[in-house]
Each structure stands twice: as structure tokens, then as C-alpha cells.
């Protein structure tokens, strides 16, 4: 055992038997060393309940997920959310309104699954951030792509606007109506179609909940290539439609690489079946890429083919405190260089984030208070090899002063406890007041500069200005909270944040999409020719503009 007096960290040289458990770098008073000690079955890093033979997937039951309740808590117990047209300058386009004849036609297509009850419609009209609210009078719940096709065919003929909706966990108002659009929910399209246990290729309907799919493939020794804080509610179709990034992007890359094929229903009801399971198919244009990230504006995704990586045999997570952002960057550089292929996540958060998860969610900081924190995850096939590599890294960053305190876990329950500190920041922010959210891609060396800049610029007008995100991807989640929505504060933030990002040649949307809130700032990240081409593509595939109107693209003059 060696004492690192400079940073008051006790570093344990574990015996071979003990090293198979969990190493605790500091003996912090709030968590005893025993808290992060691995169970005898530590090698099973993904302990899941059995659901053998499950083909129909629904919402998870009795399984911890920080944001699993998102879509169902948006209006209960709080003030009514302001209607979107009353808060934002937007005018209704000349679409038809739903008539009794339309409702009768929908009932013929999907008997018993046409919802008009105002109480049931309430949560579907409001985003989970409680920032935008539509006034749709009808919710449709199809179960098959053919039913989606018949619904869209009718809406296309009648010029009825349609709002596709998955788990309603989006951050930019893209998943709820702006006015009275028909809500087309994929919630009942939740069946696994096939899974190949050699290739790891999963084919499923778009309404499958990500956490349920994760459980399904984990039982077959695979994992989903993406993981999100909202996994308990979000749908795989919505993930693809928004090109969601998430916590595994550093290791497994974008959905543009892992999605092999899609089934999509176009605006006029045409079913486009490109649901291939081939890893290589170089015939013609790759049409699926048009719909990945299109946010339901070009077609409704009804089924997905996606390749799943093998389940890692060993997962380690370290949670570390850093004295400054420069040390965060150096710690990332060290981890990337020394961990190589087993580095699967590198997340950072500032001290205000930690204070908020403690204040609003009563989560405990497992290390001494620091200006910044990083979460490092490794995933590999050899527990001993991975633990040794991570141990060497932690020794390096501790000895060099890059890290002042830290703790490490291999047991799945303790791994989840450490991940909760990062995953539940969004939830804590939502309880702090009205949240102005920005999802930016920036050069990694400038990632935190905007947070510091805005604290000075906003002063006491903001309750909190916090920064966290996926450092390994150059993705900053910038959040500003206030007691209530303020046009003055919004004016101080926009377009300043977007112009600042553009000056760094960054992106105004790293992974959340543009939705309703960010559609008019597309020009900060794309040249006029690109925006025009996108508008032409939209006009070709959806000439009447009925699919998710008012979203993704700026309005044409």
C-alpha cells in the first residue's frame, strides 16, 4: 500500500485475489471501501433478469432507469405549460383540421386505438422538459407498418399534418405537436422481428424501448451500440430518426455506421423497405442515410436493422476528481493513449452539476469535492488485462497531479451507481427551474470556454450555468437554468451561443437534433447551398409538407 500525501489519496496494492474485486483509490468518509467491493460474481458485468423467448417488448417494469418516467411526468403536479405559439413566433400552415369523418376513417384502420380523451392526450402534447405544448386532439397507435401506411395515405389525401412520436424524450421540441397535428405513436410497434446470434444483427420494430432491447440482446451475449440516459423510455426508431449519440459513441461510433437498414413509410403512404441485414451493400445510393437524423420530416421509420457488438466480459468504471479543465484534457489524453481499444467512455461534468444531482436527487459524491469530475469506462474481453491497464492509468494520473481523488468499481450495481451521477444530470437540471439547453460540438480544447464566458455574460440573471458531456466526442451539453422562462435571458443567450460556436467551426447540434427549437439556427452549421438542398429533398419526398411540420428546417420565405 502506498500513501499519496500530496492529494490525500490512499492507493491500494491489492493481492491477486482482491484485485478481482473493486479498487477504491481514496477512503472517502461518505462511501466505505466495502461499498465498492465486487461481489463474487463480478465477472458478469451485465446482470439482467431473464426474459427468454420474449418477442414483444414494452415499457420496462421494476428496472432502474434514471429517466424512465420522463414522458409521464411532464405536466402532473406542476403549472400548465404555455402553448408553443404563445411563446414562439410561429404561424399555423394551411393544413386541414381533423373531422368526425377522419376519426371514423382512423377507427376503421386501427380499431380501438384512436385516442381522443383529453387527459390521455395531455402528456403526448407536452415535451418532457415542459417547454413546448401542442393542442392535438387525436393520438393514433398503429401496430404495423401497413397500418402506418394507411394512416399516412389518408392524411396525405386530406392534407392533415402528422407528428410522429416515439418515447417523447427529445430535447428540442421535435416529438410533440406545435399546433393540432395528428400524433402518430409507435409505442405499440414493439416487436423483435429477428436476431442472429452469430452476426449480432437485430431487426425490430421502431417502437421497441432501448432498455428492453438492451436486455434482450444482453441475454444473448451482445449489447446495443448506443446507450442513453433516457433508455427506459426512448424508442429505437426515435433514436435513429434523431441520430442519437449517447454514452457509447466513443467506442462504437454513430448510428450512421451501425444501422444496416430501415423500413420507412413515406408521406403518401408508400412503404420503402430497405431493411437489409447485410454489412456490405454498395448498390446505388444509400437511402437509409436520408432518414437517419431526419427527425420524422422525410418519412416515418417503422423498423430498424442494427448490428450489435459482442457483450464485453469485463467492465470497469473510474470516477475521478480533477483540479481544472486543463487536467481533464490531459487525463483524457493519457487514458486514450494508455487504454487504447478498451476505452469505451470518457465523460466530464463540472462541480455545479455534482451539486445539483446532490441537491435535487440526493445522490452522494463518492470523491472529495473538485472543480471537475470525469467518468472513465473500459470494456473488454479480459478482466485481468483490463484491470491492470486501468490501474496503470490511475497511477499515472494520480502521480502526475492530473487527478486529486477517485474511486473505481467493477461490480455492476456499483458501476450503475457511478454512472447515475452522470446520467441523471439532465433530470436534476429539470428540477432546478426552466432550462435553456444547448448541445454543441466544439474543438475539445475549447469545450469549456463557453461555459466560463456565459457565467460572466449572464451574471445573476441565470440561476446556474453548467457544462458536462462526452469529452471523447467533443460534445458539450451547456445548460442554463432560471426560475422561469425569460425572454431577456433568451435574448442574451441567442444568437450569442450559436455565433460563438460557429466562430469555432463547431456544430449547433451535436446529437439532439434541431427539432422545433433549433430549426432556425441551421445556417450557423451548414452553408446556404446545403440548406437549400435539404429543403428541395423535403419538397420531393413530402410535397404537401405534412410530416412533422415546423421542425428541422428553417421556414422558406
From TrEMBL:
EC number: 1.1.99.39
Domain of life: Eukaryota
GO cellular component: mitochondrion
GO terms classed as biological process: malate metabolic process
Cited PROSITE patterns: FAD_PCMH
GO molecular function, a single term: (R)-2-hydroxyglutarate dehydrogenase activity
Location within or outside the cell: Mitochondrion
InterPro entries: FAD-bd_oxidored_4_C (IPR004113), FAD-bd_PCMH (IPR016166), FAD-bd_PCMH-like_sf (IPR036318), FAD-bd_PCMH_sub1 (IPR016167), FAD-bd_PCMH_sub2 (IPR016169), FAD-linked_Oxase-like_C (IPR016164), FAD-oxidored/transferase_4 (IPR051264), Oxid_FAD_bind_N (IPR006094)
Cofactor section: FAD
Pfam families associated with the record: FAD-oxidase_C, FAD_binding_4
Main location: mitochondrion
Signal peptide feature range: 1-20
Swiss-Prot/TrEMBL keywords: FAD, Flavoprotein, Metal-binding, Mitochondrion, Oxidoreductase, Signal, Transit peptide, Zinc
Domain annotation FAD-binding PCMH-type: ranges: 132-311
SUPFAM superfamilies, alphabetized: FAD-binding/transporter-associated domain-like, FAD-linked oxidases, C-terminal domain
Catalyses which reaction(s): (R)-malate + A = oxaloacetate + AH2; (R)-2-hydroxyglutarate + A = 2-oxoglutarate + AH2
Function comment: Catalyzes the oxidation of D-2-hydroxyglutarate (D-2-HG) to alpha-ketoglutarate. Also catalyzes the oxidation of other D-2-hydroxyacids, such as D-malate (D-MAL) and D-lactate (D-LAC). Exhibits high activities towards D-2-HG and D-MAL but a very weak activity towards D-LAC.
Family per record: Belongs to the FAD-binding oxidoreductase/transferase type 4 family.
Protein name, entry field: D-2-hydroxyglutarate dehydrogenase, mitochondrial
Amino acid at each position: 500500500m502506498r500513501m499519496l500525501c500530496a492529494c490525500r489519496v490512499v492507493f491500494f496494492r491489492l493481492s491477486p485475489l482482491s484485485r478481482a474485486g473493486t479498487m477504491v483509490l481514496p477512503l472517502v468518509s461518505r462511501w466505505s471501501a466495502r461499498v465498492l467491493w465486487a461481489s463474487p460474481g463480478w465477472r458478469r458485468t451485465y446482470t439482467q433478469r431473464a426474459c427468454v423467448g420474449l418477442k414483444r417488448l414494452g415499457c420496462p417494469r421494476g428496472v432502474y432507469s434514471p429517466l424512465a418516467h420522463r414522458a409521464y411526468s411532464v405536466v402532473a403536479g406542476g403549472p400548465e405549460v404555455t402553448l408553443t405559439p404563445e411563446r414562439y413566433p410561429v404561424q399555423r400552415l394551411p393544413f386541414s383540421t381533423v373531422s368526425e369523418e377522419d376519426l371514423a376513417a382512423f377507427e376503421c384502420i386501427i380499431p380501438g386505438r384512436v385516442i381522443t380523451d383529453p387527459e390521455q392526450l395531455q402528456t403526448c402534447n407536452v415535451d418532457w422538459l415542459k417547454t413546448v405544448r401542442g393542442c392535438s386532439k387525436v393520438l393514433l397507435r398503429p401496430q404495423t407498418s401497413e397500418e402506418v401506411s394507411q394512416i399516412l395515405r389518408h392524411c396525405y389525401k386530406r392534407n392533415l399534418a402528422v407528428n410522429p412520436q416515439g418515447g417523447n424524450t427529445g430535447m428540442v421540441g421535435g416529438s410533440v405537436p406545435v399546433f393540432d397535428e395528428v400524433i402518430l405513436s409507435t409505442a405499440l410497434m414493439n416487436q423483435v422481428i429477428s436476431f442472429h446470434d452469430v452476426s449480432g444483427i437485430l431487426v425490430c420494430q421502431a417502437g421497441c424501448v432501448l432498455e428492453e432491447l438492451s436486455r434482450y440482446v444482453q441475454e444473448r451475449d451482445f449489447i446495443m451500440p448506443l446507450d442513453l440516459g433516457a433508455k427506459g423510455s426512448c424508442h429505437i426508431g426515435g433514436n435513429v430518426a434523431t441520430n442519437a449519440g449517447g454514452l457509447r459513441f466513443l467506442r462504437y461510433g454513430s448510428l450512421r455506421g451501425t444501422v444496416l437498414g430501415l423500413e420507412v413509410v413515406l408521406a403518401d403512404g408508400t412503404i420503402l423497405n430497405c431493411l437489409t441485414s447485410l454489412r456490405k451493400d454498395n448498390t446505388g445510393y444509400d437511402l437509409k442515410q436520408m432518414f437517419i437524423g431526419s427527425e420524422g420530416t422525410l418519412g416515418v421509420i417503422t423498423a430498424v436493422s442494427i448490428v450489435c457488438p459482442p457483450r464485453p466480459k469485463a467492465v470497469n468504471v473510474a470516477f475521478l476528481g480533477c483540479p481544472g479543465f486543463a487536467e481533464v484534457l490531459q487525463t483524457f489524453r493519457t487514458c486514450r493513449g494508455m487504454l487504447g481499444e478498451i476505452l469505451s467512455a470518457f465523460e466530464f461534468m463540472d462541480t455545479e452539476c455534482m451539486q445539483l444531482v446532490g441537491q435535487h436527487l440526493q445522490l452522494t459524491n463518492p470523491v472529495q469535492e473538485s472543480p471537475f469530475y470525469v467518468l472513465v469506462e473500459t470494456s473488454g474481453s479480459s478482466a485481468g488485462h483490463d484491470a491492470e491497464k486501468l490501474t496503470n492509468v490511475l497511477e499515472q494520473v494520480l502521480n502526475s497531479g492530473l487527478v486529486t481523488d477517485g474511486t473505481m468499481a467493477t461490480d455492476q450495481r456499483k458501476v450503475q451507481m457511478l454512472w447515475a451521477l452522470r446520467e441523471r444530470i439532465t433530470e436534476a437540471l429539470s428540477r432546478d427551474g426552466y432550462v435553456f439547453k444547448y448541445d454543441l460540438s466544439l474543438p475539445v480544447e475549447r469545450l469549456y470556454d463557453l461555459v466560463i464566458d456565459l457565467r460572466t455574460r449572464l451574471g445573476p440573471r441565470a440561476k446556474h450555468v453548467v457544462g458536462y458531456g462526452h469529452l471523447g466526442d467533443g460534445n458539450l451539453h451547456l445548460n442554463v437554468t432560471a426560475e422561469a422562462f425569460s425572454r431577456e435571458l433568451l435574448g442574451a443567450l441567442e444568437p450569442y451561443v450559436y455565433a460563438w460556436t460557429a466562430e469555432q467551426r463547431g456544430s449547433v447540434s451535436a446529437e439532439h437534433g434541431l427539432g422545433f427549437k433549433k430549426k432556425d439556427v441551421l445556417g450557423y452549421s451548414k452553408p446556404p447551398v446545403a440548406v437549400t438542398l435539404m429543403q428541395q429533398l423535403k419538397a420531393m419526398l413530402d410535397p404537401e409538407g405534412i410530416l412533422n411540420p415546423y421542425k428541422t428546417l428553417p421556414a422558406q420565405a
